[in-house]
Amino acid sequence: MIKMKINRVDYSNNNTPILYKDEIEKFAYDVLADYKPNLLKEPGAVGFEHFVESYLGLPLLFRDIYYDNPTNPIFGTTIFGECTVKVFDKENECTKTEFFWEDCVIIDNYVMQPGRKGMANFTGIHEGAHYLIHPGIKFPEKTRKIFCRRESIEGSGSSQSMTNSWVEFQANYFTSSFAMPNTTFVPLVNDFLRKHNVWKSYIKLGVNEDLDTLGKDLLPEYISEVYGVSKRAAFNKLRTSNFIEVYK
């Protein structure tokens, strides 16, 4: 297993690593080359369970994680050491505090429901990214954990849009680069565009109804199936890679 070498940190922000996008992307490629190098040559899906348990060597747990904002639930949690997590006990219809004494990843049961496999994959890899990149972050006493909410995992991938800090942006950017590496992503998208008679290198939304269907639905759905990620994650990657442009 490869962990990221951190050379610069923001001491005023809990020792958050200072990383450029190309540094995160290179690290994601290095990890993928160590884990499953064939996925840098042939497009395919990473199964988060195997990645977390077999490659990272972390226990993978499933809980109903308690959250106070129903519009922005917690999808996953990375545990870096002894701490507690508030969960919902469905059997007794109450909340309880559960103690965790070792490094592990917790995925919320909501993410694991039928029809959300792509969401689960992206969430699980996202949590693994925290473990690889952020073990040096300073946590308040007895809170050695990172909660990842819907907005963090389903965000557009732009650092300006991430309301939950650089830590979440870094994990998301790693996940996108790891699950959909440009070495296969770029030629795959270009081939799709040519087969659908799009001869520019991008689709501009809001101009043509057929192109809107292609850019909002068909292409993201195709990418999500190939890479085993959510359609939302696929669309975000297309936008940040400049394959999708929103007409203004």
Class by helix and strand content? Answer: alpha/beta
H/E element order: EEHHEEEEHEHHHEHHE
In terms of per-residue confidence, which ranges show pLDDT below 50 for 5 or more consecutive residues? Answer: 157-164
**Radius of gyration from the CA trace?**
18 Å
Largest sheet: number of strands, sense, barrel closure: 5 strands, mixed
The helix content, as a percent range, equals 40-55%
CA distance, first residue to last residue: 44 Å
Strand content: 15-25%
Average pLDDT reading: 91
| Helix segment tally | 8
Shape by Cα distribution = globular
Strand tally, please? Answer: 9
How many structural domains can be distinguished in the coordinates?
2
Outline of the structure:
This protein has 248 residues and is an alpha/beta fold.
Task: Please tell me about this protein's structure.
With 248 residues, the chain is of the alpha/beta class. It folds into two domains: 14-179, no CATH class; 182-246, no CATH class. The protein has helices at residues 21-35, 48-55, 117-133, 150-153, 166-179, 182-195, 209-227, 231-240, and strands spanning 9-10, 16-17, 60-63, 74-89, 94-100, 104-108, 143-149, 203-205, 244-246. The strands form three sheets. Strands 3, 4, 5, 6 and 7 form a five-stranded mixed sheet that branches. The radius of gyration is 18 Å and the shape is globular. Mean pLDDT is 91; it is low at 157-164.
